[in-house]
Amino acid sequence: MTDSTAQTPPTGAALRFPDGFAWGTATASYQIEGAVDEDGRGPSIWDTFSHTPGKVLAGDTGDVADDHYHRYREDVELLAELGCTHYRFSVAWPRVQPDGRGALNERGLDFYQRLVETLLERGIQPYVTLYHWDLPQPLEDAGGWPERDTAARFAEYAQLVHQRLRDRVRRWTTLNEPWCSAFLGYAGGVHAPGRTEPAAAMRAAHHLLLGHGLAVQALRASDATSRLSITLNLYPVDPVSDSHADAEAARRIDGQMNRLFLDPLLAGRYPGDVLDDVAEVTDGAYIRDGDATIIGSPLDALGVNYYTRHTVRADPDAGRIASEPSEWIAAGDIEFVDQGLPKTAMGWEIDAQGLYDVLTRVSRDYDAPPLYVTENGAAFDDVVAGDGQVHDTDRVRYLHSHFRSALRAIADGVDLRGYLVWSLLDNFEWAFGYSRRFGLIYIDYETQARIPKDSARWYARVTRQNAVPDVD
Ligand code: FCB
Fold it and tell me: Which residues line ligand 1 (CB under 6 A)?
């Protein structure tokens, strides 16, 4: 049982975060905005996917979501009440460049300009993600991320948005979780665009990274003061035993999940063992000379999203049927096993120690820039109680244990600069629709009423004290 809380000495001094630590929450455009047909927005792959029967639980779509497009002022007030110094949100590419190429749609851009102004008026720093999975549908129609041209389109879009907002926005993230875009979207097929082509997924991963690198170079060249980053979803991957076969299984999953992204971004080269592992699927001919240098362009920060740990074993008998789609490439002989820990409503094991493990791993294994936890949080089956409140004690405990874990990582030398909780609001949780609630603020989807949960009040104490209070 790994409980970081138990290992943290309960002294007041040890519970404080460094001065100037960034506290905030994170959201993503398609998950909260709604207004999918307004002010010239074009369709994204998530509009198409969610409107395809059977793809999203209960047939939910992002058509209305949290109606944040119209209620952003109220939502910024909530951020202020939470004491957030930072707010991470994403720009919907199809809202500002509906065809994925060409001139900006001014009415779409206006929305983000108004949002940024409103944040700044409340003293909240915008932390902008340029791509959180809502690719303009016309670019998918042209082949999507498996096509090299999509990387160039992304860099061009990034430049256009940056030019318009860079005087007020200092922190920029190119991509959110390229592993999900590539492998859930193009191999597992459980995310948009729902393709199940392992070779295309490998190409997509490369072109996402290339698009990131091209964008970093362009943004850096136009404004040396912008702080540039990317956000990865990282997991510790452990073998279930110390057998050689299980160690190999862990190496392979860690390779696809973590090192396939960390190595090119932070060490300027692909991990050879991972490319060898997937050689039966693709020969990697899409990687051209010079790409590694572009992808490895220096960063000012790395965003880490952390949710759980993976524990794996090699089990040739339990392998997936070869024809069954999977987000794991050439890994049908690897099984994921429970550690027996309590789970969130996503079925993800709660393992606060894992956050310490990923943060220290990145710091130890790489010449890493400063780190931010750009997402961490949990879905639970929240209900509005008779008193009209949401008593989400489980979420408070979850955050408490993970904040303590982050503190231990800092104490052990990790340069962690901030923590953005996923999420501000309950929202459209991708293939799970509205059935999974991650918010500090509860959304009544009938009325769009925002109800701060107990965790919101607790988090406001954390942000104001810059310290982790005891759970009471
Ligand atoms: C991450 C995504 C985010 C949200 C959380 C729960 O993978 O970046 O949009 O869905 O998981």
Answer: 28, 31, 176-177, 180, 233, 305, 375, 422, 429-430, 438
